[in-house]
Design a protein that fits this description.
Neuraminidase, globular, mainly beta
């Protein structure tokens, strides 16, 4: 009886060790976006959204027409709540033409407006200065370095300009770009989305060489950073999560419903704010990754 019981125990142990071990559970969560809120449709052709940490509000550039725009002075900047999208001030800053990308530095809002960079006081909403960019055709996005260097993309001439002090210098020019658009300055490098070629570039800001991180992001528009990775919007109605190694995941496809223009991202709350252009709204999404 003892030998029989011992044999059973040994056999059980042998069989247990021979069973394949289950793999440890891995976090394979796919990045996604879930809708939080949307504004009403008072915003006229909203192109870009930027968060102002001073007043915790979202500033929206409204073209109020077609993106190429005429110098008709009917473009404006609106302010809405970042919490629920409620309107704070529809015509906060007026007298612009076809305002698009924006950047904030030292109490000023810098706005790309066809062939000029317009500087608006955040305290008053008044236009205090403007910089005409020679030869500019379609100034599109703006991003500002920590030291106040204002970078501007020109989708019409395949150029990237630098506004420093009162001078504008062309830093990059290449027909390979295919309509440069979204810019994100990260110190010794800058990321750039392109609306024509669909290439997403890494630019070395020391020697201004560049490489393609990933491709096929056609109508590339806004670029934001989340950790080591990026969120890239494509104007036609797509938003992608782009990993640091270039792998991309489609987060949102709204091509049948509305555009997805120059986005804003709050990394702390993982909230993505999407201007819908001809949809005349801003929609907020929660990023889950």
């Amino acid at each position: 009886m003892r030998l029989s019981l011992l044999s059973i125990i040994i056999s059980f142990l042998i069989l247990s060790n021979c069973q394949p071990k289950q793999q440890e559970s891995l976090d394979t969560t796919t990045p996604s976006l879930s809708k939080l809120w949307e504004t009403d449709t008072l915003l006229q052709t909203p192109e870009s959204v930027i968060f102002n940490p001073t007043d915790s509000l979202l500033y929206i550039s409204c073209i109020n027409g077609v993106p190429s725009g005429k110098k008709d002075g009917d473009g404006y900047i609106a302010k809405i709540s970042a919490k629920d999208g409620s309107m704070v001030q529809l015509n906060w800053a007026t007298g612009l033409h076809a305002p698009k990308g924006m950047g904030i530095y030292d109490g000023m809002l810098y706005v790309a407006d066809i062939d000029s960079v317009v500087v608006i006081s955040l305290a008053s909403g008044e236009i205090v200065k403007g910089y005409w960019v020679e030869g500019a055709d379609f100034l599109n996005d703006i991003d500002i370095s920590d030291s106040g260097e204002v970078y501007i993309s020109d989708s019409g001439t395949d150029k990237v300009h630098l506004l420093l002090g009162d001078s504008v210098t062309t830093m990059l020019e290449s027909s390979d770009f295919g309509r440069p658009n979204g810019l994100l300055h990260l110190g010794d490098k800058m990321m750039m989305a392109t609306s024509g070629s669909g290439n997403f570039y890494t630019i070395n800001t020391t020697d201004w060489t560049y490489n393609i991180l990933t491709d096929s992001l056609f109508s590339g528009d806004g670029v934001k950073q989340i950790g080591d990775d990026f969120i890239v919007s494509c104007w036609k109605g797509e938003i992608y999560y782009v990993a640091a190694n270039g792998e991309k995941t489609l987060l949102l496809n709204t091509e049948e419903a509305f555009n997805t223009a120059d986005i804003e991202l709050l990394p702390e709350s993982k909230t993505v704010f999407v201007p819908t252009f001809f949809g005349n709204q801003v929609i907020a999404y929660q990023l889950k990754n």
